[in-house]
């Protein structure tokens, strides 16, 4: 059997630009390999930030390994996206472990580009990665563009590719293998993103051992068929958690969100909740991962097509949520408890007029705002309560204010919209009557007079809003650092109470 050895190497030059939210080498803890942030990128090539794409989390012996597609390329455009690794134990400090599995700069290699996969450890302590090989060039002699590949490692540092492992499907879309052990059926299963009859499906393969060659993985048919359209369902993950079975996947379609479905029995029917997604379109290619008795979801928040405005593009910063399970099995993204403990030192943020402000109330008519001092570099957490007296208008936070004047909007707003039952971001605001198109939103049903708790994480260009321990909204808003921000109301009767800041 032929094999090829890959050793974690120096980081590659980056194509991606515009990433924020990370300490560059020499900053923070003084360790060039350490990023101190809640929204890390993949790595730095000298001072150039290299963003990340699809995340493949793998928890092992107290460490969360954040494998991911690094948004970098080789000598030609057909060679790209090595799998790189960050590690963390607290979701605030991340160590760059370098490239784990690289692409091959060979015209006919199935690994000319690397796609998403998954990581698992066998009973003998050997680590396995099943990943996607991708080569879309004509004339390579390969039967299909995409293929499932396999590599092993004794230590997660040195990886050896099994060059004879090439599991093809019957489609050019055949990717994102997710491998797990099923204790009920006492075998390993592999979920694969593909399509049949013009619609996206997730197929399943089985094997008694992780070391089987590609012919040892038996086709078990469709595991889950798209119930919301015909789009591909990217980056699946599957976990059993407190008596429920959850399947997550991302919509390669109009809505661009991470959906999930659930079962109450091992082989029961698939069910969905009314809100069937984790976060919104700023949280893409999300995967679940268990760490002891806690469940997490990891994804990436993309750069924007228009620089400071526009839609989400490809490649960006890591975003991590802790997942809270409700009594009926519904899953809610909440602030990670370790992050809340670490980012807990009170910080003094005064209004632009110099006053300390803990509570702000706005009347029901017109537009008003109260500006605060400039947002700093680094990570900031703010918390407050919001009470909406009526359902007219909108209120929330506005960013990118060029001065500290009250009664102004910045170039972006995060709006609580009770009339539309949602939490939403607009990132191309021109006036109080022209917010532009929505960047992202999540549904949320408000009750008049009820008080809701809010936590906000801000670092660089990335912000996540956690509302009522029920929903999360992750966004990229350039020009937040070193600019003023404000609480505002546009026709809403609202109170923001207990406003506090932490760093």
Query: What would you call the structural class?
Result: mainly beta
Strand order of the largest sheet: 25-36-27-32-33-34
Largest sheet: 6 strands, antiparallel
Residue-averaged pLDDT: 91
N- to C-terminal separation?
Answer: 54 Å
Uncertain segments of ≥5 residues (pLDDT<50)? Answer: 1-32
Measured by DSSP, the beta-strand proportion falls in over 45%
Number of helices: 1
Radius of gyration: 23 Å
The total strand number stands at: 36
- Helical content (DSSP H or I, runs of 4+): under 10%
Molecular shape? globular
Write the layout of secondary structure elements.
Elements: E1 3-7, E2 34-36, E3 43-45, E4 48-50, E5 52-60, E6 63-70, E7 83-88, E8 93-101, E9 113-121, E10 127-134, E11 146-153, E12 158-162, E13 175-182, E14 187-196, E15 199-207, E16 218-225, E17 232-241, E18 244-252, E19 258-263, E20 277-278, E21 284-291, E22 294-306, E23 309-325, E24 331-334, H1 337-342, E25 360-362, E26 367-372, E27 379-388, E28 394-401, E29 412-417, E30 422-426, E31 438-443, E32 451-459, E33 462-467, E34 471-476, E35 484-490, E36 494-502
Antiparallel strand pairs: 1-12, 2-8, 3-4, 5-6, 6-7, 7-8, 9-10, 10-11, 11-12, 13-14, 14-15, 15-16, 17-18, 18-19, 19-20, 21-22, 22-23, 23-24, 25-36, 26-35, 27-32, 27-36, 28-29, 28-35, 29-30, 30-31, 32-33, 33-34
At a glance:
With 503 residues, this protein is mostly beta strands. Helices cover 1% and strands 52% of the residues.
Outline the structure in words.
- A hairpin with a 4-residue loop joins β7 (83-88) and β8.
- The N and C termini lie far apart (54 Å).
- 48% of the residues are buried.
- The model is unreliable at 1-32 (pLDDT under 50).
- The chain is mostly beta strands and 503 residues long.
- The strands form eight sheets. It has a six-stranded antiparallel sheet with strand order 25-36-27-32-33-34, with no helix packed on it. A six-stranded antiparallel sheet has the order 26-35-28-29-30-31, with no helix packed on it.
- It is globular.
- The protein has one helix at 337-342; strands spanning 3-7, 34-36, 43-45, 48-50, 52-60, 63-70, 83-88, 93-101, 113-121, 127-134, 146-153, 158-162, 175-182, 187-196, 199-207, 218-225, 232-241, 244-252, 258-263, 277-278, 284-291, 294-306, 309-325, 331-334, 360-362, 367-372, 379-388, 394-401, 412-417, 422-426, 438-443, 451-459, 462-467, 471-476, 484-490, 494-502.
């Amino acid at each position: 059997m032929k094999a090829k050895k890959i050793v974690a190497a120096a980081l590659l030059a980056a194509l991606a630009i515009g990433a924020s939210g990370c300490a560059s080498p020499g900053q923070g803890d003084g360790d060039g390999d350490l990023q101190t942030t809640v929204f890390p990128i993949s790595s730095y090539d000298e001072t150039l930030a290299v963003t990340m794409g699809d995340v493949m989390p793998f928890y092992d012996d107290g460490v969360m390994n954040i494998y991911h597609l690094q948004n970098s390329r080789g000598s030609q455009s057909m060679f790209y996206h090595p799998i790189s690794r960050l590690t963390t134990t607290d979701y605030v400090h991340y160590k760059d472990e370098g490239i784990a599995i690289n692409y091959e700069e060979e015209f006919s290699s199935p690994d000319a580009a690397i796609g998403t996969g998954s990581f698992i450890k066998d009973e003998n302590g050997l680590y396995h990665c099943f990943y996607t090989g991708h080569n879309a060039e004509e004339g390579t002699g390969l039967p299909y563009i995409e293929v499932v590949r396999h590599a092993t490692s004794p230590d997660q540092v040195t990886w050896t590719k099994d060059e004879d492992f090439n599991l093809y499907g019957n489609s050019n879309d055949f990717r994102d293998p997710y491998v797990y052990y099923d204790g009920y059926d006492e075998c390993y299963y592999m979920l694969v993103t593909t399509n049949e009859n013009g619609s996206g499906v997730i197929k399943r393969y089985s094997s008694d051992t992780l070391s089987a060659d590609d012919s040892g993985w038996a086709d078990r048919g469709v595991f889950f068929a798209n119930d919301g359209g015909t789009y591909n369902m990217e980056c699946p993950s599957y976990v059993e958690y407190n008596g429920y079975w959850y399947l997550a996947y991302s919509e390669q379609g109009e809505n661009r969100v991470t959906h999930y479905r659930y079962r109450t029995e091992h082989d029961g029917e698939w069910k969905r909740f009314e809100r069937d997604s984790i976060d919104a379109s700023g949280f893409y290619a999300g995967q679940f991962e268990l760490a002891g008795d806690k469940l997490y979801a990891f994804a990436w928040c993309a750069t924007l097509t228009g620089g400071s405005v526009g839609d989400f593009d490809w490649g960006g910063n890591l975003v991590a949520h802790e997942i809270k399970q409700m009594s009926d099995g519904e899953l809610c993204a909440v602030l990670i408890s370790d992050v809340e403990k670490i980012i807990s030192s009170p910080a003094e943020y005064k209004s632009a007029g110099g006053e300390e402000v803990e509570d702000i109330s706005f009347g029901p008519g017109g537009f008003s705002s109260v500006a605060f001092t400039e947002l700093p570099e680094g990570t900031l957490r703010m918390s407050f309560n919001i009470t909406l007296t009526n359902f007219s208008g909108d209120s929330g936070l506005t960013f990118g204010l060029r001065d500290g004047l009250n009664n102004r909007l910045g170039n972006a707003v995060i709006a609580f919209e009770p009339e539309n039952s949602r939490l939403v971001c607009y990132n191309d605001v021109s006036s109080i009557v022209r917010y532009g198109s929505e960047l992202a939103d999540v549904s949320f049903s408000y009750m008049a007079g009820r008080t809701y708790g809010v936590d906000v994480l801000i670092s660089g260009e990335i912000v996540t809003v956690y509302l009522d321990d029920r929903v999360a909204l992750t966004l990229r808003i350039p020009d937040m650092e070193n600019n003023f921000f404000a609480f505002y109301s546009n026709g809403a009767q609202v109170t923001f109470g207990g406003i506090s800041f932490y760093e």
